[in-house]
Design brief:
two-stranded antiparallel sheet, 50% helix, single chain, 6 helices, 147 residues, mainly alpha, two-stranded antiparallel ribbon
């Protein structure tokens, strides 16, 4: 049975010598009531493996300690950040290419920029500015949602 430590701050211990089911209190009992059951939740009611381990870990807030994968998240965040930076630099290059009398109208009117024909764009542009802005928006949203 799951037993709380006797002194304050003592970790709970598991006594395997008792034959009563391992009862889970606190948040698991609350979870059970949310599931429409009024009975106590028993760890043994869950299949062995991750389901049972998850039930046990949920039985006390102090058990909820997990690896945060900080290095991996940092690498993923830096990668997303660099993808956004690359698109941002391409957008700036497009804007600078149009920073003249002939291209100024495209910088001041989205509808003109959308309707711009292939011949009026520099040859190195492999996409339109609106298409690039759409890709940039998706990347920025991925960046924000991922973390």
């Amino acid at each position: 049975m799951l037993e709380k430590g006797l002194g304050s701050g003592d970790p709970p211990s598991v006594d395997n010598s008792k034959s009563t089911p391992l009862q889970v209190e606190s948040s698991v009992a609350t979870s059970a009531s949310k599931l429409g059951t009024s009975d106590s939740v028993h760890v043994e009611d869950f299949p062995k493996g991750f389901p049972r381990l998850a039930c046990f870990l949920d039985s006390d807030d102090t058990f909820m300690v997990y690896k945060r994968f900080g290095v991996v998240f940092s690498r993923l965040l830096l990668n997303k950040q660099d993808e956004v930076r690359e698109l941002e630099m391409k957008l700036l290059a497009m804007d600078r290419a149009d920073n003249n009398e002939a291209g100024a109208g495209f910088l001041m009117s989205r509808s003109d920029d959308v309707q711009r024909d292939q011949d009026s764009r520099p040859s190195w542009w492999d996409e339109t500015r609106p298409a690039l802005l759409l890709r940039l928006e998706k990347k920025v949203l991925e960046y924000c949602e991922a973390f």
